[in-house]
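Researcher: We're teaching a course module on how sequence relates to structure. For the next exercise, students receive a sequence and then see the predicted structure as tokens, so they can try to spot secondary structure elements on their own. Here is the exercise chain.
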Amino acid sequence: MPHRLKPYYIAVDQLRVGTFIILDIKWLDHNFSRNSFKLKNAEQIAEIRQLGLKQIRIDPARSDNPPPPLQRTDQLPAATEVTTPLSEEEIQAAKIKRERIERINQLRASVVECEKKFLKTANALKNINANVFSRPQDAHRLANELIGKMLDSLMTDRDIAIHLMNDKAGSEEMYFHALNVAVLAMMLAKELGLPAEEIKELGVGCLFHDIGKLNIPDRVLQKSSGLTRAEQNLLQQHCQYGEEIVQKMGLSRQAVNIVMQHHECMDGSGYPKLLQGDQISPLARIAAIVNAYDNHCNRTNPSDSLSPYAALSYMFARQRPQFDTGPLGVFIRCLGVYPPGTLVRLSDGTLGMVMAVNASKPLRPSVLIYDPGVPKGEAIILDLEQEPDISISESLRSVQLPREVYDYLSPRKRMTYYFDVPQTNRRGPA
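Model: And here is the predicted structure for the students to work with:
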């Protein structure tokens, strides 16, 4: 029957392992990590019975052999209070729940702090760009200072987490793309083991890699349909224009090479000089990987953008000859199979969106999960590193999500990242 595909109520004594339940009580009023999940064992069933509920909602579509629905559920009594003493197991479960809540609150706080740092850095970059033509030397000095501060945070013995910023933190303006590229390129360079001075030059070069686009008309830059041959040729000149600008600023040869060569390809198919292999600066090869990724995720027309997961898959499967394969492999490992912004289904059937990835543990990201029993503003973020029984089973496209799930998770139209250095989880032995 069609109605059986929708959630319905059963009696608590009908619960069985494999049933996907939806708890219609506040998240803080029970000891489970979520309000909706599939029952795994008899202990979970026993704990639910202790909640004093007489009926419980289940999702038959996500259940294994679901029990039949109740009849005349409106005549059932409301939930009653449980007065029996708590067992040692229940006390321990409550302790685990409190610890989980504390971790979730810490995750939320780190996201807020990371977004503050991102906006402060983006505003600084905006001011730097405003001085590029009028005071080029000052712009260079300020860029060095900005990258230096980012480098100080990056070069620690702790893991680096890449966070997805919210839409309000992003913008269509060029400096957000430049900052994205700088952040991800510096993260990649650290994982490659590059010395701090080279990472700094990489960061400065990435901040200005597209500066030549200031000399390209907006009608070309913002055109969402296909460019004509003449428009394409004009757009490609931004590399030469950029070289002229940054030379006046006094950037190092390494940084200038990034501006000139970030569209060159290892197989010689790039521009402007059709360089290939070792003819391309090592730092420019890193910038090329990150620039391509960010361009795939943030196309002029947002509806044409690839998801982070699809972007990495496309680069590896279709564009691999264009990139230095060593750094490309490390970049994919750092962002993980499921980069921040990826919509996912967890192993227990829960839907969510990856919010942050730890560079050293890419398969255990932090995931914002969809739980209709929790208000959107209080949505739970699970750190999968702390949830060994849960993993990501697959990546999803936004069109695969029901409308209410899409609205709850609010997938980003633009993917904007910034890094955070957690105060805990120091990297242990490899």
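Model: If you want an answer key for the exercise: The CA atoms of residues 164 and 369 lie 15 Å apart. The longest strand covers residues 351-358.
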